Amino acid sequence: MSEGPNGFQDSRPGYERPDHSDSDGPEGDPLAWYQRGLELLSRGSPAAAAQILQRAATVEPASRSVREALARAQFDARRYTDAADNFRLIVEASPTDDYAHFGLGLSLARSGDPASAAEYLALAAAMRPDQKHYTDALHQVRATLHSRAGQTGPAQPGPAQPGEDD
Predict the structure, then answer these.
(1) Is 9 helix (H, G, I), strand (E, B) or coil?
(2) Which of 54, 87, 106, 116 registers the highest number of CB atoms within 10 A of its CB?
(3) Out of 1.10.443.10, 3.20.20.140, 1.25.40.10, 3.30.365.10, which CATH number does the structure's domain 80-149 have?
(4) Could you report the per-residue pLDDT of 27-42, keeping only the tens digit for each?
């Protein structure tokens, strides 16, 4: 296979990537959008990064790098459900990707599903026990689950009150 002019692989002789520039979006190609998205993300503009990275992901849906950058931008823009969806796509394509499990777990926790989050965070922590932020996130989610279980658990019998029949 030969590397195309945009940095993506293509083996078809004479194949030219379609021109993705139009009046509705940014100029350039998916690689340029990816690079611009990373730049925006690093400069603290996650919503703008997510917008341009979504365009790149639409054109290059199998690109793990684009998908991860998009999920990170969505997470930072507090679009936790969207981030979870993209991290889930990475996990499904690459079940041994510890960072994708971690990102999915954090996204699920932030979107209000700590039980599912614990599962993915536990997998990430098991894959990379040396990553303290993985285990810290897992402990935090488990503490949330424990706290919620205590709040909604069965009523504990208290001491008998005067005048109650035994």
Answers:
(1) strand
(2) 87
(3) 1.25.40.10
(4) 789 999 999 999 999 9
